[in-house]
Design brief:
The structure is a single chain. The protein is an alpha/beta fold and 379 residues long. 23% of the residues lie in helices and 30% in strands. The strands form eight sheets. A five-stranded parallel beta sheet has the order 5-2-1-9-20, covered by helices on one side. Strand 6 and strand 7 form a beta hairpin. Helix 1 packs parallel to helix 7. It is globular, with a radius of gyration of 22 Å.
């Protein structure tokens, strides 16, 4: 029997493998990964500095422990070069793997801005543990960090670095932080809380160039502002990895296109996680990945199971003002209503009939999370 082959050892790949092994201990399982195969929590990368965690302390289990736990063959430092759906094989840097089912848990790549200047090569991104280790080495002994992007990861890193004693500038073309997640009032509260830590915001501005200046860097913004930094971190967002799938004739759009059974247009190939587009939605967050893995595992074990997303709150790890947001479904008609209360802001997204379809809570208002989830389920 040919094995089930999973490409990728991030949260999506490893969670799927764990869920599958709860149902099936016999079917051969092979995992291919470009890194060292260690299991760690990627969301922890953006708040490890203030917690005093070194990169090696973020590893939950080394690859050998994962091999034993999953009864799987895990090939590390293995670059997948091509997928051949006709022969059901994967060609990689260590040879060829045949599969009965193939799962693409490829993840996503950081989006890079088209910047001018001789300092662009120094712009860093943190997308995995090895990136984070390099970033930690680079900021050691430095004091000024500029962050491109005020989204989820940008804000979390800003909080973490400012708490660690760094001077932080954040640049974003949007008028507020967390523009894709939060309505204006809670976004303004997080903006002010981080500003109180010393974070300097540059909203409504685009970075045009990064230039070297002595031992440091200078960012030139489109309004003529110059921001000096020792290190520049790009946190613009992620782009699903689709090249392997596209080259194999698998349908891609923004991500690898899959149905509610996480099947591609080739019935033997599935995708989940940051690389997947599930009926038009790309959801690069923890809870969607966990739900997808729990649906796909029984399908691989012979019991086809459709993915149904429950309400899935996103935790914003900004200790200066913690937040939880459950965005309304894309394309939903309605409006946000925000109410200040002691120590926080409670925002509700209501449709024209007054039904609760989403919420955003900051500070002490996080205590309303469970009642909001129940109200959404009732709606």
């Amino acid at each position: 029997m040919n094995p089930i082959v999973i490409i990728g050892s991030g949260l999506a790949g490893y969670t799927l493998a764990r869920e599958f092994r709860k149902l099936d201990r016999e079917t051969p399982l092979v995992m291919l990964t470009v890194d060292d195969g260690a299991f760690y929590s990627k969301p922890m990368l953006s708040n490890a500095l203030a917690a005093g965690k070194m990169p090696d302390q973020l590893v939950n289990k080394p690859v050998e422990a994962m091999r034993q736990e999953l009864a799987a063959e895990i090939l590390t430092r293995c670059e997948v070069q091509a997928i051949d759906p006709k022969s059901r094989t994967v060609r990689h840097s260590n040879g060829t793997a045949a599969y009965s089912r193939l799962v693409l848990a490829l993840g996503a790549d950081p989006i890079r801005l088209p910047l001018a200047g001789d300092g662009t090569a120094a712009v860093m991104s943190v997308n995995n543990l090895e990136d984070y280790a390099r970033f930690r080495d680079t900021i050691a002994g430095r004091r000024r960090v500029a962050i491109l992007g005020a989204g989820l990861i940008g804000c979390e890193f800003a909080n973490d670095l400012a708490s660690g004693g760094y001077e932080v500038d954040v640049i974003d073309i949007a008028p507020q932080p967390l523009g894709r997640l939060l309505p204006p009032k809670p976004a303004a509260a997080i903006r002010d809380a981080l500003a109180n830590l010393g974070v300097r915001w540059h909203f409504g501005k685009a970075t045009q160039a990064v230039e070297r200046s002595g031992d440091g860097l200078v960012l030139r913004l489109d309004d003529g502002t110059r921001v000096e930094a020792d290190v520049v971190l790009s946190a613009i967002g992620l782009r699903p990895r689709t090249e392997l799938a596209r080259a194999a004739g698998i349908e891609v759009n923004r991500g690898i296109v899959v149905d509610r059974f996480l099947r591609t247009n080739d019935a033997s190939v599935h995708a989940l996680g940051d690389c997947a587009e599930v009926e038009g939605a790309v959801l690069p967050y923890v809870l969607p990945i966990m739900n997808a893995a729990r649906a796909l595992a029984p399908t691989l074990a012979g019991r086809e199971t459709a993915l149904h997303y429950p309400a899935m709150p996103v935790v914003v790890k900004t200790p200066a003002l913690p937040a939880v947001v459950c965005p309304p479904p894309a394309g939903t008609t309605g409006a946000w209503r925000s109410e200040a209360e002691p120590g926080g802001i409670a925002s509700r997204f209501l449709d024209p009939d007054g039904r609760l379809l989403g919420f955003a809570l900051t500070g002490a208002a996080i205590s309303h999370k469970q009642e909001m989830l129940k109200a959404m389920q009732a709606a």
